[in-house]
Amino acid sequence: MLFILLCILLFFPLLHSATSKPLASKCSTIEKFNPGDRFDDNLIQLMFLLAIKAPKIGFEIASVGSDHGRVHGLAMCRGDIGSEWCFRCLNRAIFHVQTVCQRKKDAVIWLDNCMLRYSDKEFFGEVDHNHTVLLRETRNVTNPIEFDSKVIELINKLMTKAYISPLLFATGQMKIQRVGRLYGLVQCTKDLSGGDCKTCLKSAISRISTSGGGKTGERILGGSCQVRYELYQFFDY
């Protein structure tokens, strides 16, 4: 309750936008904290730090507290959005994570333009294989085999660009006969090395290739990287 109250006080001008639903979330099933304990107090401070610092460059990691009350967190916004929209998205993430992952010591939440993660265990610089969600469009294309191969071709090209970029982020498009234009985006959290970013994206791409089926759009949401493709432009550049 104290955490929600603090969010209201800090982010009241933006709460009109806090009603949009998250894309997905992953919460620990065992580890919990009690309201008002050291972990709870440190989590409040951590969320404040991430919300203030992350919008400047679209990414931030931080740790607060010590011993059993220590909490680690990460905030990342999509690489093509500005600081104002980043701040708005993280505000919504903070608002929602307290409901969907109430009192959990490990949580990840994804919104359209950002993700937020915290844990009682330090995870910085490590590829996260535990928090992954696959979202798929319900519609299919008429030529799924050819289409799926083009999807993998585009995403692989973007991966090659992203993991050598300081931003660990890339977008692109490809024209496909009888379908139109295919748009793709890949992004890694900036605590990863280029090599670890590549490893994470390869794992995400393998999930797309094995799911198959010629879906008109898919997202792989992870704690360390994300992959998305659609038949419409969903990014700014």
From TrEMBL:
Entry keyword annotation includes Signal: yes
UniProt keyword Signal present: yes
Entry-linked Pfam families: Stress-antifung (PF01657)
GO cellular component: extracellular region
Secretion signal span: 1-17
Localization annotation: Secreted
Annotated keywords: Repeat, Secreted, Signal
Domain Gnk2-homologous per the UniProt entry, residue ranges: 21-123, 129-234
PROSITE patterns: GNK2
PANTHER family for the chain: CYSTEINE-RICH REPEAT SECRETORY PROTEIN 38, CYSTEINE-RICH REPEAT SECRETORY PROTEIN 38-RELATED
Family: Belongs to the cysteine-rich repeat secretory protein family.
Official protein name in the record: Cysteine-rich repeat secretory protein 38
Organism: Carex littledalei
